[in-house]
Specification:
alpha+beta, about 40% helix, NADH Oxidase, binds flavin mononucleotide, globular, 6 helices, 4-stranded antiparallel beta sheet
């Protein structure tokens, strides 16, 4: 099996992280992997931002009361909707999976975080988030990633109910 397939099969959602910071270079590579995901008709409706600096991560987490939803991750990646597009949810999913796999390939752990979306898109919090990220225009959050170094053991794979003889 090649490295790409091994990476796909061994990636797991991790929900406990060390305080260790993730390098900006690594976060930048992961964001690049997201940017290079396919988008419908190449419309590229997303805006992706990696948050690696300790202060910024804290500021972003504090907007939603401490951000325990990120499980103590030392870095965060956020995917925003750059403009209205019927395929942006699907495009976002492709970018997210690229970034989870890129993280795993760099020896980092991650978890897809959806549950903060409504909290950050509340108008007051959205304004604070845009300010924290240094953005002049207001974007709507789609999905986030908790990123960092795993604390404890790697979780076992959850059983897949789609397994079977899917090739005819
Ligand atoms: C659209 C989507 C939203 C998710 N949102 C969350 C979330 O808010 N919090 C969380 O802990 N995990 C979240 N996850 C992670 C899933 O729970 C996880 O991928 C699933 O249990 C399978 O485990 P695995 O990633 O280890 O294979 C989300 C995954 C997807 C695809």
């Amino acid at each position: 099996m090649n490295d790409t397939l091994k990476s796909i099969l061994s990636r797991r959602s991790v929900r406990s992280f060390k305080d260790t910071l993730v390098s900006k270079d690594d976060v930048s590579l992961i964001v690049k992997a997201g940017i290079y995901a396919p988008t419908a008709c190449n419309r590229q409706p997303l805006f992706i931002i990696g948050i690696a600096s300790e202060d910024k991560v804290k500021e972003v987490k504090d907007i939603i009361g401490g951000g325990k939803q990120f499980y103590g991750a030392s870095a965060i990646i956020m995917v925003f909707k750059r403009n209205e597009d019927d395929f942006s949810e699907i495009d976002c999913g492709a970018a997210m999976e690229n970034m989870l796999l890129a993280s795993h390939s760099l020896g980092l752990s991650s978890c897809w975080i959806h549950c903060v979306r409504d909290l950050y898109n509340d108008p007051k919090n959205n304004a604070l988030l845009m300010k924290a990220l240094g953005l002049k225009k207001s974007y709507s959050l789609m999905e986030s990633i908790a990123l960092g170094y795993i604390q404890g053991d790697e979780p076992l794979p959850k059983p897949r109910n789609m397994q079977g003889d899917n090739v005819i």
